[in-house]
């Protein structure tokens, strides 16, 4: 995830007609992996946050577009998600740039460009968590914590945080979790534990791990008659299974990409909420480091710490 300022911009004529969508040099923007062209039938539909251009131009197996704007010594370099954010400078299509509040602190709101929108929106937009409901969030990484925050914002009465690392529970409490369950503390399957705790199952569950077996557990933890389970975690290498009887009584099993937010619109709205002190962001950050410490960050922090390290790039003029 990256926040940056626009150096140069070349936009299509269609965007010149709407000033708030047009980028100028010096504007603060957040690059978003999910496109929003605002022209295709997906972008115009309220039923999805997908964009046809994102589907047709990105190779999912490598998570990169066919056309890269980077090269080194004449050889093309893949540009992850079409963004390539581990660089001092990058070239990004304007349909992947969300213009944000000019006073927004870049070293904070950069987190909104991926994980916060993904977790928060999965609860609010996709699951449509209801006031007074009971929720379970599986996985308390940054996305899971944002899902907890979304459940609380939607008015959930009880939010059960599920993770195998009990050190994450204190942070989850800050974002609104009311109960904490470590699957390692129980001999029976975790979904059975949750069903017993809630007298039949939770109303909403969100899987924020990216593990197929956890996705199945999340589904089975919901009440059979009306439970809603949302797959938030991502995996290309695993498959899950379900029987018709798991759904026929009234359960709903659905997925969420980027929390159901229309990419550019959602980021702009979430940054606005942060500026109005209606959204927690600072609380996610555990470390601030420079680019030269990237290997230390990855091996020493990312694999063990549940939250985020913000990395600063010193751009050469």
Automatic annotation (TrEMBL):
Q: What keywords were assigned to this record?
A: Metal-binding, Zinc
Required cofactors, per record?
Answer: Zn(2+)
List residues traversing the bilayer: none
Under the heading InterPro entries, the entry gives:
ADH-like_C (IPR013149), GroES-like_sf (IPR011032), NAD(P)-bd_dom_sf (IPR036291)
Any one Gene Ontology MF annotation carried by this entry is: zinc ion binding
Its name, as the record gives it, is: Alcohol dehydrogenase-like C-terminal domain-containing protein
Q: Which GO terms describe its cellular component?
A: cytosol
Tell me the ranges covered by the Alcohol dehydrogenase-like C-terminal domain, including all copies.
142-271
> In its UniProt record, which GO terms are filed under biological process?
formaldehyde catabolic process
